Amino acid sequence: MFENLTDKLERSLRLIKGQGRITEINVAETLKEIRRALIDADVNYKVAKTFTDDVKAKALGQDVLKSVSPGQMMTKLVRDELATLMGGSAVDIKLEGNPAVILISGLQGSGKTTFSGKLAKLLHEKRGRKVLLVAGDVYRPAAIDQLKVLGQQIGVEVYAEDSKNPVQIAENGIKYARQHSFNVVIVDTAGRLAIDEEMMREIEAVKHAVKPSETLFVVDSMTGQDAVNTAREFNQRIDFDGVVLTKLDGDTRGGAAISIRSVVDKPLKFISSGEKMEALQPFHPERMADRILGMGDVVSLVERAQENYDEEEARRLKKKIHKNQFDFNDFRAQIAQIKKMGNMKDLMSMIPGVGKAVRNMEMPDDAFKGVEAIIDSMTPAERANPEIINARRRERLAHGSGRSIVEVNRLMKQFEDARKMMKSVAAGGFKGMPNMLRR
Length: 439
Known about the structure:
Elements: H1 3-14, H2 24-40, H3 45-60, H4 70-85, E1 100-106, H5 112-126, E2 131-136, H6 143-154, E3 157-159, H7 166-179, E4 184-189, H8 197-210, E5 214-220, H9 225-238, E6 242-246, H10 255-264, E7 268-272, E8 280-282, H11 285-292, H12 298-307, H13 311-322, H14 328-340, H15 344-349, H16 355-358, H17 369-376, H18 380-384, H19 391-401, H20 405-425
Parallel strand pairs: 1-4, 1-5, 2-3, 2-4, 5-6, 6-7
Antiparallel strand pairs: 7-8
């Protein structure tokens, strides 16, 4: 999302790198470029100016330690101020009441229904909540069917009616939740424009009727400053509690993420990228600031790994590695574990210094497809005993998987390299996987 902004900020900060000390002149030159970069990224002009004024005041009042260069100090100041601008620290959703009610609002096409499904999955699987989705969009064709399909995918029940009264549907959904011991209700509503008075009165009525513990405004980050302006108008009418930015995997300049907290004075609570139900993250301003400045996001990467970490499986695998018994069944299981963590390019971009290197690399979601096809073409004996895979068997694997003999030979070599590496470090296998992306 922030690729262009990251490049421009890096170029701006180079102006002060190598300088012996911070002066009003080199600070002014650097901040002029930073302000230009922010405006190019569709950050609100007033927000960009206030931001650079604040950084300038802190930079000129800062004594640079002997161990820290002016460039490093300026980078830190910009990073800290970016984090502050976006909220300073993460703000979690409030789950109060029995059941806790979360009301979803926003424009048409902003991704409300998909987000409702993602949030239900997160609360159900990671926080152990019994979640009910309520289909309150009675206007968009197939909106109710879409929510039902998402509910089936994630194992969450959906409450729907034939009624065209969204207030009644929401109230009845909450009654149903109480009767069946659901402790969280997510009410999906129809998209609406802030200038549509009738529709705005309707969402106000829904909120008044269900008294949600949390009202979230879902906004498409692709709309840039329009997203910020729309959020401000909605907030004046329904006083929402937080903002959700969707479609961050698209061609967006990132201005909405940076500006929205300052303009609306409401926290960003979630960011969403992609259509997969796992593609939802709580918003951490300090981590996002690191990513904008090209510093990666190791904390989020580790958290994703921990979420998909199977302790019992790791112990079993460690024993096999120590005995040099790691085979293609284990290799296949490791690939599946990595795929659960999300898009490979997104994961690699979280590693400091790697994001820029992989920016123009093609890393589709099915990056492991060829490897999996070859392994799936093996017999049980071949997967358990890789040593028996000779030249004749390799030709059969190439034919059976639809891959070339070169790819089969490459996989065998990479597997042996990974096997040796794992034997030496007994670390569980993750470090050997990045090579699998080299086609």
